[in-house]
Design brief:
2 copies of one chain form a homodimer. Chain A is α+β, with helices and mostly antiparallel strands. The first copy, chain A, is about 35% helix and about 20% strand. Chain A has 19 helices and 28 strands. In chain A, helix 14 crosses helix 15 and helix 16 packs antiparallel against helix 17. The radius of gyration of chain A is 25 Å and the shape is globular. The interface of A and B includes residues 446, 448 and 533 of A.
Chain lengths: ~600, ~600
């Protein structure tokens, strides 16, 4: 017995001659979060985790998901007729290999190519080449059967004033066109939502936590088209955009317009960010310039206005987080506090700041052993009270008119063991040493990662994630191309740290079943002195929230590290205390005193 | 009026229809040093620097060289009819652009392709494509006119015993064939001399400082051919090689044999190491597997026998260098000592050790301002006495049956200024911190470079060379693919540090007109502890010679750095003092006492 939705889908497959149908979890822009309209995999399978891919044939149906979701998927797939494939477990086939096995020579694989990346499609095509599989890439079969499908998000678009953006859309467009000309491009196709929002100084609310607009754009030498649901565009916004030479067209019309591109044109696009349906719409004659979106680097390098604002955003954010830590420390032991309550209270404090627009990602408050689950997010079902003599790991961020924040603090509740303190101190040392890097212009993320890991490696410990990611300005909290990574991969290779780039510094340690520690500050790259040897660079720590003295072993810090900590704490106190009540300010004074 | 040799060459060019002729400084294997036979550029131009390229047309003749040789070339080219092009100076045409300018459409460029890398030939071809230039790649025009041309080096080949090599040539060949099979290669073409010497456990003396043999090799599934001048091969060597299935053929016969390769074969070669004539000899039908020589990685990872021997080589080398430093410190101020005398005296001390086979590169003893010239080598003309109140930079190395050494010490003579000491201390800190890296398996050179540079960068200083290079075992002192570099390039990208790799750790500082400092130890990569987080790695410092206390400011070392220095010095004393005279041992005891 299979789920009704599955049966219906198979009917469609039969009707359209599709032998296998693939459903991924993405929207048309590979957004980090997807709206309800795009939740086809959940609709067909009933599994509502954030990651999972469904493959359906006439006889088989399989769902692939990762370790975070094994239990949940097992539960939700019961009686659905869908088999769970535990990705990454030994002996579990990967999807391309599964398709290789189940498809007969010359059969047909279908999917909605708007949800599939060019890279993934290429992988599939390579794996299935010998089987001579036919690909139907423009098949939204779920759309055909999903009667009560939610509407696509169509939230109002608003304009980010130049005084916040620091550069007008007119100037940004001029720069884009200058670079297009330099590369010989006649037209530039953009489909990454943060690039579009950045370029046109628009913001929206179509993706959870990312203040972006479901849209595409084509930029020509003399005109620019923004493809967006017209209901999102008020007259004021339309007039402002049109005044700068930007036409508004319906969202999905971009596929038609790309298909009609003049065959003699040179088209700049970034295959790393566009979906395979859009790539497939490009007429064969068009000459491709497949390079990183030229907006990506410009967006990563914050301008002086943005830099000033971001400092302000972090000041406001620090006030809220410091209040939260004080509140937690005061209430701990007096009454039960749950993870969800911590998130809610922090939101209350953040809302007390001006120009606060909401969270920049789903907040993590993880108590005790929950802290060791790197992707843990508390829900009504999972939320537990603060565990005694353990940590609360709190990884949250806010969207302000003045920029995007992202901060992790790990807070001691009760008394800690020597091992807990040693581990906290090692993570702290890594955080401080990376932030204190002083380097000659030209360094990339791979040059710094060691600084954050060394104190853990000394102890035979490690964390299995990158050390830091780029952060947008009132945009996505995860933004390329800058990052701190041991190995640079893909687009990040060779990305040099430029003045104005903001990158997180977040070493951690995770002991399954025990606790997790992560300490995250955002670092703004700035020019330091220039000497005959070159331009030197340094980081300014934007985040201004104290580390937890209850968890630090001063003897395990070097003299230099102790000075770095004391200097940082002094700066935190001096900058933030004027905005706090006397009681909290007094507490902060003690927390930030020299050790 | 042109040099007679130039006039003759032009006659040949005319006879063979060559409009421009190119002469580089390389032998057929891109060796670091070239024998007299290969010095065609010197023969034609009279310029005898180590780097320079000559381009000749009917009307023009130009020599390109770099800043090291501007003065010398100017002098030596006087009256030759050859124009000096100062490479790297603003406005100076590069050779491909020069050829673009002087050649007419459809004309012919000639060179001896055996001396030209595939990469360089590709550059030339791309630059001259639009001019439809014809390439004559097998034209040794200089050979035709050079009557008293020296013979090609033909030194005897000797066998490195398995007890030194640690692995028999039979085993190495088996491993090569296993990998060939895995990659589907029918035949493997080797032309890098150190790879050949490593594979067959042979050594020779055809290249200065590199104990290698002018040779090529083709390895098939069932046979292997070593192409070498037969006069170099004694009966003993021939029998040993033939017993392991290795045939001897004349050196240049490889070009014929490559030309006759079966067109259905899969040929493994590394275009990064073969010359364009050899590449051009490959028949069109042959399928190429263009990958790094599979011997390169194996050669870089020293086996346990090699590792043990190398420790022994460094012990012997340390005895010699310590004696030299003692000798210099004792004699300084009593009589004049020149740079050349220092080199000669060190050679005397090295020769006192067993199994010493000679220097591993041209020694550098650079006094005072000479130390700031990174490529300085003292000659009879340039050698100066030790400068008072300054440094002597001593960068030398030896070849032993037990391996290859490379060490730089910078020795204080007289009393130093606070700035000199500060600079020495900063370089020392970088050296110590890199050597103390403790890291999880998987790191590459780019992850560590910062450690060596940070103390200099703190002061706005830097050195404009890499931090370290791989080192062979009784082979080339510069060996890939391991290295410490800020940016990995070419073959080095992604090279993970493996147990058994030997890499130099040599930060420096160079103040033009004042002094140079470089401190170089060789580091052996080794496994450290294995934890649930993975395999950890560390470096063992092979070099065992004290740093100069007269140049160190203890207060500028962190506690950790001080401990690293004291521990190192203790190990130096304990390991080396038993081999020294009482007087020198006593001096060493003082030099290595804790600070």
């Amino acid at each position: 017995m299979a789920r009704e939705q599955l049966t219906q889908l198979r009917k469609q497959m039969k009707q359209y001659g599709i032998d296998a149908y693939l459903i991924v979890s993405d929207d048309f822009h590979a957004s980090e979060y997807v709206g309800d309209y795009f939740k086809c995999r959940e609709y067909i399978s009933g599994f509502d985790g954030s990651a999972g891919t469904l493959v359906i044939t006439a006889l088989e149906a399989g769902l692939w998901t990762d370790g975070r979701y094994f239990l949940q998927a097992e539960e939700q797939l019961k009686g659905s007729g869908i088999t769970l494939y535990r990705s990454g477990e030994p002996g579990v086939l990967r999807i391309p290999q599964f398709l290789q096995k189940v498809l007969q020579k010359g059969q047909c694989l279908g999917y909605d190519g708007r949800t599939i990346s060019v890279t993934y499609a290429t992988q599939l095509k390579e794996a299935l080449r010998e089987k001579e599989i036919r690909f139907e890439e423009n098949m939204d079969l779920v759309g055909m059967i999903w009667k009560d499908r939610p509407e696509m998000s169509a939230e109002p678009v608003w304009l980010l004033a130049d005084c916040y953006a620091g550069k007008s859309r007119r100037e940004k467009l001029m720069e884009v066109r200058r670079q297009m000309k330099q590369q010989g491009a006649d037209v530039f196709l953009l489909s990454s939502l943060d690039d579009i929002a950045w370029l046109y100084n628009i913001r929206g609310n179509d993706i959870a936590y990312n203040p972006v607009v479901l849209s595409y754009s084509l930029i020509y030498g003399d005109r620019a088209v923004l493809y967006v649901n017209p209901v999102c565009i008020t007259d004021v916004v339309r007039e402002a955009l049109e005044a700068d030479g930007i036409e508004i067209c319906p969202y999905l019309q971009v596929y038609r317009d790309v298909r009609r591109l003049n065959r003699e044109m040179n088209l700049w696009l970034d295959e790393g960010t566009i979906n395979v349906a859009l790539r497939g719409a490009v007429p064969p004659g068009v000459r491709l310039i497949n390079r990183r979106n030229l907006t990506t680097e410009q967006k990563a390098v914050k301008n002086p206005v943005e830099m000033d604002h971001v400092r302000e955003a972090h000041r406001k954010d620090a006030i809220a987080v410091i209040k939260l830590i004080y509140w937690l420390k005061q209430n701990y032991g007096k009454r039960q506090i749950t993870e969800l309550e911590i998130c809610e209270q922090l939101e209350v404090f953040r809302c007390q700041g001006t120009h606060y627009l909401g969270q920049s990602f789903a907040p993590i408050a993880a108590s005790g052993a929950h802290g060791a689950i790197v992707h843990y997010e508390p829900t009504k079902e999972s939320s537990i009270p603060v565990v005694d003599n353990n940590f609360v790991l709190l990884d949250t961020g806010g969207q302000y008119l003045e920029g995007t924040t992202d901060i992790t603090r790990t807070i001691a509740c009760g008394s800690l063991s020597p091992q807990q303190k040693q581990h906290y101190t090692a993570v702290l040392r890594g955080n401080l040493n990376l932030a204190a890097a002083h380097f000659k212009y030209g360094c990339t993320g791979a040059n710094f990662d060691y600084l954050a890991r060394a104190p853990l490696w000394e102890l035979g410990l490690d964390y299995l994630h990158g050390t830091g990611h780029g952060v947008g300005y009132l945009l996505n909290v995860h933004e390329g191309p800058n990052a701190f990574r041991l190995k640079e991969a893909g687009d990040r290779v060779g990305t040099v740290f430029e003045e104005g780039m903001i990158t997180s510094d977040e070493p951690g340690l995770y002991l399954a079943g025990q606790y997790g520690i992560r300490l995250e500050n955002l670092l703004l790259c700035k020019k330091a002195e220039k000497t005959e040897y070159g331009q030197f660079m340094e980081f300014e720590t934007l985040t201004l929230v104290p580390f937890d003295r209850d968890a630090i072993v001063p003897e395990q810090l070097s003299d230099r590290e102790r000075k770095l900590l004391n200097d940082y704490h002094k700066r935190v106190y001096e900058t933030i205390s004027p905005y706090l009540d006397a009681e909290v300010a007094e507490w902060l004074r003690e927390e930030t005193g020299a050790i």
